Amino acid sequence: MISTGSNAALAGRPEGLEQLRSLLDTALGALGDAALKRGGPVAAGGPEAAVAAVGEVLGGGRFLAEEPSAERVTELFEAYARWSVDLTHPSAVARMQCAPTAASAAAELLAASLNQSLHAWESGPFALELERRLIAEMASWVGFGPEAGGTLTPGGSISNLMGLLFSRDRALKDSGEVSATGLAGRAVRPRVLCSAAAHFSVARAAGFLGLGRSAVVKVPVDDRGRMLADEARRIVEGFAPDEVPVAIVATAGTTDHGSFDPLPELADLAAEFGIWLHVDAAYGIGALFSPTLAPLLDGLGRADSVAFDLHKFGWVPASSSVVVVRDRKHMECLDEQAVYLNPSDDEALGFTALLGTSLQTTRRSDALKMAATLLTVGREGMGAWVDACHAQARYAAGRIAAAEGLELVADPLLSTVIFRCAPTDGTPVDDESAWNAAVRRRLMTDGRALLARTKIAGPDGTPRVHLKLVFLNPMTTEDDIDALLADVSAAARGLAREAAAER
């Protein structure tokens, strides 16, 4: 008998299952206790208190302890739960980070305990087929047919990277297969068009793929962050003979305004010039479930590839991202024959894996938790939850517009609201951007609320710090929103008074 010096056990064995039941009770208890002790969306105390909490659990020891202890695991669970952000709290509105359904959380536990992988048939036969079926259905959501392909990824940044990988190999294939021969010596200058409001992962992906960040051409946007299709056309028509447009990257749901680029017009442009159209719908895919908001995604089915997340509008634990491609032949650059993983004779007899669909080899079964939420909530339920979050944003925007000391930037398009605190009661504020930033930090430190921040140009064109609410919790009520805004206003007034007293 192998001894570990502790009561550690492997999860799949009988003794491991018994230990898992006990630890699960401990974890659930920690979750319940944390909500009571936390009091808000995050524990109070700010960064110093969080650092101290980790130090208290570890003490002076190391993770790989000389004397392992199950009691220390209990302490770890309790501290982790207490210092985690409570995504079910109505004042946790900082990030595109959803609270998962109970079904998907249970699926996560099952997937972790069984630890299936998708790189070889014998590593997870049911998991493999489940992902294939899920990808096929997701491709149909966006309007792709039976020839479509795709894969699950660790996040929207990797999904965008893969979309640009496929577009790069297609655009530059005339001078040799890029994945085989590389980019060196090619007498062309690749270009990727995206809006000035596109996610930073587009430029980063261009760098990773050897195209270079300088290959990314930022197309001007309107006052809501939507790409101007006429400007995109002007740029394409003005390319020099050696400039090769690799892709147009459209955004469906920008991180600030939640804006949607004009997909039909961009699809027309891409088709006219033979350019790959990739749509980053990491956030905006939620509109697809809503009969009211679905028109925002008109033209999505004309894209060549689409990236979207279900760990934003989807209520699935991260990571739950997807990239789907209209024609799976463009995924051939990922083909790999490894004799120890997918030998051809095994493949011919149906023992097929997903090694040739992903950048990863060992890969977890994220499809299980996605399927658990989709089967539990259903399409109508998903639409109702998206509509609820949209309604919350509209309500919050109305309250902000009517409130003294708060200024709304624009009516929400999806579920984000951008606003700023403005001085009231004749109390002057020296630097309004620094003041708004400080309001956010004060709310976080006090454990009262978690808000995001961004920069929006003011009337004079100078970027100023603004605050942002992101609604992804369909259970949030109007009373909850009123309380949140009251906390924001109170923090703003308190900081203004403190600053005035110090003058």
Structure description:
This protein has 503 residues and is α/β, with parallel strands linked by helices. β3 (189-195), α8 and β4 (216-219) form a beta-alpha-beta unit. It folds into three domains: 14-84, no CATH class; 116-363, Type I PLP-dependent aspartate aminotransferase-like (Major domain) (Aspartate Aminotransferase, domain 2, 3-Layer(aba) Sandwich), CATH 3.40.640.10; 378-498, Alpha-Beta Complex (Aspartate Aminotransferase, domain 1). The mean pLDDT is 93. The termini are far apart. A seven-stranded mixed beta sheet has the order 2-8-7-6-5-3-4, sandwiched between helices. It has helices at residues 14-38, 46-58, 70-82, 102-114, 125-141, 156-171, 178-181, 201-208, 229-237, 263-273, 344-348, 367-402, 432-445, 478-502; strands at 92-93, 149-153, 189-195, 216-219, 243-251, 276-280, 305-309, 321-325, 406-408, 416-421, 450-457, 463-470. The protein contains 14 helices and twelve strands.
Question: Layout of SSEs?
Answer:
Elements: H1 14-38, H2 46-58, H3 70-82, E1 92-93, H4 102-114, H5 125-141, E2 149-153, H6 156-171, H7 178-181, E3 189-195, H8 201-208, E4 216-219, H9 229-237, E5 243-251, H10 263-273, E6 276-280, E7 305-309, E8 321-325, H11 344-348, H12 367-402, E9 406-408, E10 416-421, H13 432-445, E11 450-457, E12 463-470, H14 478-502
Parallel strand pairs: 1-11, 3-4, 3-5, 5-6, 6-7
Antiparallel strand pairs: 2-8, 7-8, 9-10, 10-12, 11-12
List the keywords.
single chain; 503 residues; alpha/beta; Aspartate Aminotransferase, domain 2; Aspartate Aminotransferase, domain 1; 3 domains; seven-stranded mixed β-sheet; five-stranded mixed β-sheet; 12 strands; 42% helix; 13% strand
